[in-house]
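subagent[fold] <- orchestrator: predict structure for attached chain, return tokens only, no commentary.
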Amino acid sequence: MAKSKKRMTDAQEFEIMKLVLDKFLWLGFIIMGWGMYQSLSQSNIMAGIWYMIAGAVILLLFLILIIKEYEIWR
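subagent[fold] -> orchestrator:
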């Protein structure tokens, strides 16, 4: 006899997704904040711009994951 897999409800799946995606938000903002600090603390503004761009890319990935997973536009 094959065991059937338990399925999560939409609410349970959403709660787990929030826990994971929250880390993406923190990571993106921390990287952008570090880039801002680097830009302001050094005479070369470009020193931190790459960090800020990397943080923005992480936040855009976060946005794409949410739209794909939850189909917000429908």
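orchestrator: received. Logging for downstream: The helical segments are 10-41, 46-70. The CA atoms of residues 36 and 51 lie 8 Å apart.
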